[in-house]
Give the backbone structure.
Amino acid sequence: MSDLLESALNPQSVAVIGASENIHKIGGRPIYYMQKHGFGGRIYPINPAREEVQGLKSYASLAALPEAPDLAMVIVGGDKAVDAVAQCAAFGVKSAVVVASGFGETGEAGRAVQHAMVATARAAGMRLYGPNTQGLANFSTGAIAGFSTMFVEVPPADGPVGIVSQSGGMSAMAYGLLRGRGLGVRHVHATGNEADITVSDLAWAVAHDPDVKLLLLYLENIANPELLARTAAYARERDLPIIAVKAGRSESGQKAASSHTGSLANEDRTVDAFFRHHGIWRVRDPHAQALAAEAYLKGWRPEGRRLVIISNSGASCVMGADASEEFGLPLAELAPATRADVASRLPGFATALNPIDITAALLSNSGLFGDVLPAVAQDPAADLFFINIPVAGAGYDVEAFARDTAAFALSTGKPVVVAAWQDSVAAPFKAQGIPTYVNENDALGTLAQLASHTALMRKAIVPWPADTAPALPPGTGQFLNEAQSLAVLAAAGVPVVAHRLCRSAKEAEDALAAVGAPAVVKACSGDVPHKSEHGLVALNVGTAAEAAALFDRQWAKLAELGATQEGVIVAAMRRGQHEFMVGARIDPVFGPVVVVGDGGKYVEALQDVAVLVPPFAAADVTAALRTLRIAPLLEGVRGDPPLDIDALAEVVVAVGKLIVGAGGAIASIDVNPVLVAARGQGAVVLDALIERGG
């Protein structure tokens, strides 16, 4: 389901089952918050022990209410929570927020109770939030069906940011960090165990709020990737950046996530690939989300990543240049006319090259920022601007620096950030709305993220045309044999090594003559997918007699293993520069995914691979290859020629199209090695294994 969840996010009436007079208890907080922050709807406290709760009439039960509320908060625990959900469903409540814990996060028995509760809700058409959730908050309407202490510690202010999180604690943390930076937040929603409503559901709804300009997500699993992908596509259409924290990167983190929200963490590299594919930027924690938020909310979308550094310290210029290289922000090569203009505005001993050192002359001439910034603003090489002020104070007109910087940002629309560790220096810049950080790493990291994420959001996803499903050979075995696997790949346009499948020693002799010596001789059986482990691969076979003897030996070995004797392959020995692997599989969460990386016999040990989510272009493959540890080898080292990575990319695309086109008939494809020759000389598959789908 992908509705906009109006009954929960914009309810006209809210019941609180387990209401409390004490505003510091879970049952008291929602009522207190809604009354304090302007909820215009009807609030129905339910507490059979009280006539009145926080100045509102209290009701003995849900059935005693004058209407079925849009939203009910279930704050009672255990069996009472299960009963309350059933009562809400029967009474016609549209949405229920179940705060109580002790369900799916506790184990199998708790999951069974949770599933039954969801079944009851769905049968009545009611949506369920939680259980084990901190609740929902919409500060534009005051509809706060949550109990976070953070809303007391840091008073709310409506604003352009939406937060959707599995964890209540992380939603509160992100909210507090954003408010601490002076940013308003509209939505703060926690999904807890996600028995029904997931982060993806709420992200879809929040993305459709036209006043939300930045969407922050915290996930421990991705329960509905199809809807999250749709949300990301919609967000790109309306230029809404999504920044996600996906916890459970490590094995320990995955175990902790399971006990925390009852979720199952997804394989991390695949999560990275999914986010990249859909234009979602991934960061490590809520601190990183909040750090860059202000720059996004400025609406800055840089055209490139070329950087201009301006400082009143030569040392800061040098350090900024070092850091810019670390962040992949090349220093802009300013035009001669720009350099001349800058030089004319600076003292003769100042530096007009980029980085621009305006020196301590700033102390005596407070207008230098205002002079220099316009001079470089229109240079087409300048995409991003970084102002570093390591020292200022008495005698410096920092207010003027800040005003000039703000005017520059407003007139050009180009991103400009400031590093100023002194509070007295930072404050005027912050007051002018300039993103200001205590150090250059945070400042340049923000610019790098903004530039990279903008490029990611602008990158179009080009769909693959629907291909005819591949014809797989008949059979019921889990794996195709190697000859069958190579034939399926060849039919898909993948270059495969010259080979013959032999069923006699004489055929092996003839095959050697056909493919040429030296050759490879290897047993072929779908029952033995990993032949080398059984001594069923022989290299550098040079004579017909050798080929015949190896046939007899391997044929006998298959019989000894109890494997089907489907033949022996005689294949040409091929030479190339480097061995790669290409794999594809049906991920249980994300569907078809493709892997490419360093190949050969150490592939499992080294795991130098990149993951791609279809559809993708050959250019995406080459970009992924450049992220590998072996990337320096691609262009040739120590006299070796550059590799034909374009040919490898075509293999990867073909394998991706093959598994997608199979529509589930293929569970996995393992192509290892793919031998890649020098640039312009192609690539060829030497071995392959295809697993049938269910």
About this structure: The mean pLDDT is 92. The first helix runs from residue 6 to 9. The two ends are 26 Å apart (CA to CA). The chain has 24 helices and 29 strands.
